[in-house]
Amino acid sequence: MIFEKRGNRELRSIWDWRITAVAALLLLIIGLLGISFGPINLRFDQIFKTILGLPNGLTDQERAVLIDLRLPRVLLAALVGGALATSGAVYQTVFRNPLADPYLLGAASGAGLGATIAITNAHGNLYGLLPVFAFCGAILAVLVGFFISGKFFAEPNSLLLSGIAVGSFATAVQTYLQQRHSASLRPVYSWILGELTAASWRVVTWSSIYILIALAILFAISKQLDGLMLTDEEAYSLGINPNQIRVIAVIAATLATATAVAASGLIGFVGIVVPHLVRGVSHRVTNRALSTIALVGAAFLVLADLGARTLLSPAELPIGVITAFVGAPFFLVVLRRKRMVNQ
Length: 343
Prior knowledge:
By secondary structure, this protein is an all-alpha fold.
């Protein structure tokens, strides 16, 4: 009997590693498709020859497209997708709500307000600082939510409610600014719907620092996150401090979300679709699958960005439209299942 239990654990462990390996392979394949296809298609063999420095590779123009446009865009999409998917899984655990997403605590609204301030200022002097303003707005909104919520350590839902209130206020101020500066409505809405057109190596560099730090923290506490699925008393009995883990998890997930929003605008549903998809395939709720969720999230957003660039080529769809087409029906399915379980 003990041998059977150990065997089952070993099989589950192998199955988890297989899922992670498949997710990594999927990301590699979709990443190659992402750098190959677009208004200008690049051949796979020529891409490899160019990367390896072999002759008969890409032309100078194609090489510029690959190095200056495609690679940073695909890498940024992967970073943002991994950040949003992992943050969504963590928020769902912290708040014990399968419908929680990375924008739950007002991060999206705060980032939207910061971006709107940058875009609508006089003569556009601050437009180049849009990611900075969006990042600061997201972090500030969450910090205000922490400040208002005096009972977070006793009841996580108080932080959730304060985050919703702060987000509503930020949205109201954003709407007011948009109406005062109607000439800037188009770039504001374009940013709100999500875009990766401004991807560059500079954006990839600074966003990767914050996102990778946040994901490293979340991966490090993934085992303790499982304890949040229990009652606080049960978590304490296992040697886990649930309040401390909640604070660390929320701060790290918010850092990843704020960075993703600042780099790419508002891209919805990634944090809902991907965690449920991975957990549905693996049949496990454990947060030890966070690395797999991050890889699948990265692949999902790279694929969505590929669709945004090619479906109406040479025109380009906002990537948030693509994720909404997939995520909205998925959200309704999850909501229906949740209601059926509660009945």
